[in-house]
Amino acid sequence: MNVCSWNLACRSARTLSIVISSKSARPGETCTSSSRIGENGITIRPTRPGGVLFPTPNRVGIEHRPAAADLKKQPGHFEIDTIFGKDQKSFLLTLVDNAVKLVIIRKLPNKRAESVVAAFRDIVANTFCDFKTLTADNGSEFAQHEQITKITGAPVYFARPYHPWERGLNEHTNGLIRRFYPKGTDFNQVTHRKIAALEHLLNTRGRKSLGYRSPNEVFLTHLQAA
Description:
Structural class: alpha+beta
Number of domains: 2
CATH topology of the largest domain: Nucleotidyltransferase, domain 5
Number of strands: 10
CATH superfamily of the largest domain: Ribonuclease H-like superfamily/Ribonuclease H
Pfam families: rve
Strand order of the largest sheet: 8-7-6-9-10
Strand content: 15-25%
Protein name: IS30 family transposase
Number of helices: 6
Distance between the termini: 64 Å
CATH class of the largest domain: Alpha Beta
InterPro entries: Integrase_cat-core, RNaseH-like_sf, RNaseH_sf, Transposase-Integrase, Transposase_IS30-like
Shape: globular
Largest sheet: 5 strands, mixed
Radius of gyration: 19 Å
């Protein structure tokens, strides 16, 4: 019988994280309710608490992202995420440019990676965005990131698990969206037109970080200068 050795680390006064430090377990063997051992003894954890175990193929971490994305001065570096609707049966894809704060929102029919890829095809066909990098969380909906890169021309980088501040602007933007569509909203009952209206509202209101100019104004300025 294989034995897993455990290092118990306190993440907070009320939360404990169990980290597997042994590679002796067999591939596929379950060592906790929220992790398992994959090939070569690599620990695979769920992408979200209580979520489905899902390793992202060819994942590239945020530590490899170009420094230009951190400066937040060059348009084209986007943070991306999904928002869950009622009973996790309806979804939105959200993108925000970390320099000009431009927001893009698309309804998704489901959370499958193929649906996210289709949404990016629509975005590229209907916007003037010049994508340079995309920074995602570790949700399984972004598993086909290589297809997203082919469509946008931008590499996808993944934030560290449980580090939402590495996509802080996207998290803030999702909070703004929640003011209009709070948790429990069934996005299947929200029309594409209403989602487009919200996107327009967010992109045409002044932002303090932009000198009280709107994302659309700043984005247009960059387009004209290109």
